[in-house]
Automatic annotation (TrEMBL):
ABC transmembrane type-2 domain residues: 23-268
Record's keyword terms, sorted: Antibiotic resistance, Cell membrane, Membrane, Transmembrane, Transmembrane helix, Transport
Source organism: Agromyces rhizosphaerae
Family: Belongs to the ABC-2 integral membrane protein family.
Transmembrane regions listed in the UniProt entry: 24-43, 63-86, 115-136, 148-169, 176-197, 240-262
GO molecular function: ABC-type transporter activity
Protein name, entry field: Transport permease protein
GO cellular component terms attached to this protein's record: ATP-binding cassette (ABC) transporter complex
Cell compartment(s), UniProt: Cell membrane; Membrane
């Protein structure tokens, strides 16, 4: 019980610290909102995107919203935690915490709670901006929001655990952004966030299918795009079962790697 209580208090501490760091807030919290505004404004004169002749089309803002929601999960979990924890190892914060009674479980409850809180706020902000400023129609069917909820929860949990796992890769705090950001950026380009996924070469789609972001984006498209658009997916369907399986596999992978690699200090320190 004390571990859960301590972990809950760490959530507040970590969240306050996050919002006191302007660069983290911009590059992981506001970045998807900024990109949505850029895409919606830059391509507004090009008309709607349609899956085929005679089918229902959507605006660029509506089409890019699902991918940017998925990217927000990746940024909040993988990029934010990987850079943050690597920095805390480098400046000695984790070493000092390791000398206190703080349990690693309570520490990670705080980190993952912060990711969940900021992820929820980010998604809510993105949806409000899309609906209010760019006229994106949000789903009215309850089942769509149920799908959104489980894709969001699985996606944010998977991203957070993979962020913890990735934090062990940078050799120093200074190299953390140089290691993490290119990985996150490449995944966004090949997973249907900044480019229309169905227009990518098949080999690139296959590579993207190995990683979780593609599946998070696909799950979000199933929520926010008309049913006609599922013909553009690799299998011609939303394949929500595949989305769930892929994210669960990556969640387990992230959990195992995090458990094996996490140390309060680097082994070579």
């Amino acid at each position: 019980m004390s571990i859960m209580t301590t972990g809950a208090s760490r959530v507040g501490y970590e969240t306050k610290g996050y919002f006191r760091t302007p660069d983290a807030v911009f590059f992981t919290f506001l970045f998807p909102v900024v990109m949505l505004a850029i895409f919606a404004t830059a391509f507004s004169s090009m008309g709607d995107i349609t899956p085929g002749p005679g089918m229902e089309g959507v605006s660029f803002a509506e089409y890019y919203l699902p991918g940017l929601l998925a990217a927000g999960l990746l940024l909040s979990g993988v990029q934010n935690l990987a850079v943050d924890i690597a920095g805390e190892k480098g400046d000695g914060t984790l070493k000092r915490l390791g000398g206190t009674p703080l349990s690693p479980i309570a520490f990670f409850i705080g980190k993952m709670g912060q990711v969940f809180v900021t992820g929820v706020l980010q998604a809510a902000l993105l949806l409000v901006v899309a609906a209010v400023f760019f006229g994106v129609g949000l789903p009215t069917e309850p089942e769509k929001w149920v799908t959104f909820a489980w894709v969001f929860v699985l996606g944010i949990a998977t991203s957070a655990l993979l962020g913890v796992a990735l934090s062990s890769v940078p050799r120093s705090a200074k190299s953390a952004t140089a290691v993490v950001i290119p990985i996150v950026l490449v995944l966004q380009f090949i997973s249907g966030v900044y480019l229309q996924f169905y227009q990518l070469p098949e080999w690139m789609q296959n590579i993207a299918s190995v990683f979780p972001l593609k599946w998070m984006a696909q799950g979000m498209r199933a929520v926010f795009l008309p049913e006609d658009f599922e013909v553009l997916e690799q299998t011609g369907t939303w394949d929500l079962g595949g989305v769930a399986i892929a994210l669960l596999i990556w969640l387990v992978v992230g959990l195992v790697i995090s458990r094996v690699t996490f140390r309060w200090i680097r082994r070579d320190a």
